């Protein structure tokens, strides 16, 4: 996990969001612990119910919700399956819940920053007139910091 995080310029005071619906697997927990050690604020998006009903797979026996600075409960049931087919359940709800939650957080941050009379560096759809040109200007600042750009 460290080799993945080392690819990014993570600095004290930065914020990272880590998703794990079950909250039980080692990699998201390790990522949270490494980021906290570096001084980042860690937001965990997870299911409290799922965590309570499952045994951690992490060597410490803890769940993601126990190591984050902020925990957002995605309210997904144990098993993360929306539909009952009799012999089995299927179709996860965490994908839609996670997308809704993170976009709500982003909207809240944009609103707060905008009210401080600061223009946030927001990318817009490349399918609107001027969108691609706008995005190129924004991306110039971040191209070296975010490795996948």
What's the short story on this structure?
The chain is an alpha/beta fold and 149 residues long. The protein is 38% helix and 13% strand.
Write up what this structure looks like.
This protein is α/β, with parallel strands linked by helices and 149 residues long. 38% of the residues lie in helices and 13% in strands. The protein is built from 5 helices and 5 strands; from the N terminus they run αβαβαβββαα. The protein has helices at residues 2-5, 26-37, 48-53, 94-115, 131-142, and strands at 15-19, 41-46, 70-73, 83-84, 89-90. The strands form 2 sheets. The protein has a 3-stranded parallel beta sheet. Strands 4-5 form a two-stranded antiparallel ribbon. Strand 1, helix 2 and strand 2 (41-46) form a beta-alpha-beta unit. The protein is globular and about 50 Å long. The model has no long low-confidence stretch (mean pLDDT 94).
Helix vs. strand class = alpha/beta
Distance between the first and last residues' Cα: 20 Å
Shape: globular
Helicity, as a percent range: 25-40%
Count of helical regions? 5
Contiguous low-pLDDT stretches (5 residues minimum) are none
The biggest sheet amounts to:
3 strands, parallel
Q: Element order, helices and strands?
A: HEHEHEEEHH
pLDDT averaged residue by residue: 94
Q: What is the tally of beta strands? A: 5
């Amino acid at each position: 996990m460290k080799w993945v995080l080392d690819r990014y310029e993570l600095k004290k005071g930065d914020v990272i969001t880590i998703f794990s619906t079950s909250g039980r697997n080692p990699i998201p927990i390790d990522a949270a612990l490494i980021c906290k050690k570096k001084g980042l604020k860690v937001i965990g998006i997870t299911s409290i119910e799922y965590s309570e009903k499952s045994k951690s797979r992490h060597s410490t026996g803890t769940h993601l919700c126990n190591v984050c600075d902020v925990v957002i409960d995605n309210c997904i049931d144990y098993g993360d399956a929306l539909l009952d087919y009799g012999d089995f359940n299927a179709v996860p709800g965490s994908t839609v819940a996670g997308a809704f939650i993170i976009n709500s957080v982003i909207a809240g941050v944009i609103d707060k920053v905008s009210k401080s009379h600061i223009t946030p560096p927001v990318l817009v759809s490349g399918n609107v007139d001027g969108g691609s040109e706008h995005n190129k200007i924004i991306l110039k600042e971040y191209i070296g910091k975010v490795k996948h750009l």
